[in-house]
Design goal:
Blueprint lengths: L1 H15 L3 H10 L3 H26 L3 H22 L4 H25 L4 H24 L2 H4 L5 H4 L7 H20 L1 H9 L1 H6 L4 H19 L8 H15 L3 H25 L6 H18 L5 H27 L7 H8 L3 H13 L3 E4 L2 E4 L1 H24 L15 H4 L1 H14 L1
Antiparallel strand pairs: 1-2
Helix pairs in contact: 3-9, 3-12, 3-13, 3-14, 4-5, 4-6, 4-12, 4-13, 5-6, 5-12, 9-12, 13-14, 13-15, 14-15, 16-18, 16-19, 19-21
Length: about 425
């Protein structure tokens, strides 16, 4: 371990004197052993956290990663105390036991008290982390602890990952992958509806504890590269980003794994260029950029996408109102933009945008006198009028639309009421007339 730290320190000194291009080539050439272990290590932690994070996000257990992540600090210190050296086997073992103990304490308190889940996790987080800080402070005041490098576990340093650590990380990541593959159906079912899954015979509570154990393993994998403080971001951010991009679990998992892996390597690269800075914050920064991009530009849930969709729907609604207005006044008389603006109490600019939309669809035509419906436009207006009458008839009979996914801007009433109900209403409407 000391040799790995010395190699990372000497490598940082060399890189500080080289230019950006040289550093980039040196990183991606994979010639340095520390670069290879850093890339493989961040890939493993990114993929593992992305895999488990999907289930954590769906279960609304975002605080779980933070709780177990901070809970490993006492175990790290205890592992160091065994040999008074930074023996990664003892440190990983101590971290794993500490995380699993924290998971057990969370489960015990939840079962024995009426406290909310987030309150329990907050208690465990603060208690274990406080104990860990006390132990770390005491250790750093000793001769051996002062040179231990345990503070690297707070924010992570991928360049300090040794070959032995990488092997342990690979074994743990393999265990997580195998367990998830074997228990995928149960994990998926309990993530969406735990009560229904339990009613179907799935041991929901056991699956919940299994997920907590897997998260504890993922945390052990991540502590060297990301650090204790930012561990929860590795679990939550990739999955939250993927959640904004899809509504299918398998696709969400694949995207989450991809985001975690890419951010891990990118963070290691940036940390390599700025060798005096820890890796964890850079990985989290890259993940945050991914989330911000998805937040604004997601095809379904992106803020800008929703704004554009709302604007387009408003313009379509105005266009439909304009068609019905022209049809109600007369199907042959022309109307000017100014007249329509006054009659419909809408600005000229909005009317012009609606007219452009209708003209592109071939529903209106313009001449010297103003606007006039085309034959297609009159047919479209009649369809809108008929749909409005069908809605009125439906509401008069049902009295409520609370259980109907009603969209007042839809053109096709069949999408809302279904073919059979539409035919029934049409028959009643024809009978009235």
């Amino acid at each position: 371990m000391n040799s790995a730290l010395s190699l990372a320190a000497s490598l940082g000194g060399v890189l500080a004197a080289s230019d950006f291009g040289t550093q980039m080539r040196r990183f991606w050439s994979l010639e340095d052993p520390s670069v290879r272990t850093a890339i493989l290590g961040t890939l493993l932690l990114g993929m593992t956290c992305g895999l488990l994070g999907s289930f954590v996000v769906l279960r609304r257990l975002s605080l779980l990663g933070d709780s177990l992540g901070h809970a490993v600090l006492p175990g790290i210190c205890a592992g160091f105390l065994v040999t008074m050296t930074k023996d990664i086997r003892w440190i990983f073992a101590g971290a794993a036991l500490s995380a699993m103990l924290a998971a057990g304490v969370i489960a015990l308190i939840q079962r024995r008290t009426q406290l909310k889940q987030d309150a329990v996790m907050g208690l465990v987080l603060s208690g274990f982390y406080g104990l860990g800080v006390v132990m770390l402070t005491r250790l750093q005041n000793t001769s051996s602890g002062n040179q231990s490098g345990l503070n690297r576990f707070l924010f992570g340093q991928a360049s300090a990952i040794s070959t032995e650590e990488l092997k342990i990380m690979a074994v743990l990541a393999g265990i997580v992958l195998v367990v998830v593959l074997l228990a995928y159906k149960e994990l998926a079912a309990t993530s969406f509806d735990e009560e229904f899954a339990a009613a179907c015979g799935i041991p929901a509570r056991a699956i919940h504890y299994l997920l907590m154990m897997l998260v504890a393993i993922a945390i052990v994998i991540s502590i060297q590269a990301v650090g204790i403080v930012l561990l929860s971001a590795m679990l939550i951010t990739p999955a939250a980003t993927a959640y904004l991009l899809t509504d299918r679990l398998k696709v969400m998992i694949l995207l989450s794994v991809m985001f975690g892996a890419v951010a891990g390597v990118a963070g290691a690269n940036i940390s390599f260029l700025e060798s005096h800075l820890p890796t964890g914050p850079f990985i989290v920064a890259v993940l945050t950029l991914f989330f911000v991009a998805a937040f604004f530009f997601s095809p379904q849930q992106g803020m800008l996408t929703r704004m554009h969709r709302r604007h387009r729907r408003q313009r379509q609604t105005l266009a439909d109102q304009l068609v019905r207005w022209l049809h109600a006044v007369t199907s042959s008389q022309t109307q000017s933009i100014e007249q329509l603006s006054q009659e419909m109490h809408t600005s000229d600019s909005h009317i012009r945008k609606a007219v452009n939309l209708l003209r592109s669809d071939g529903l209106v035509k313009t001449d010297a006198g103003g606007l006039q419906l085309t034959t297609t436009g009159r047919e479209y207006a009649e369809m809108l009028d008929r749909n409005a009458k069908l809605w009125e008839l439906f509401l008069a009979q049902e009295g409520t639309i609370a259980d109907i996914p009603f969209d007042p801007d839809t053109d096709d009433i069949e999408q809302v009421l279904g073919v059979d109900l539409k035919r029934q209403l049409e028959g009643q409407l024809n009978g009235v007339h």
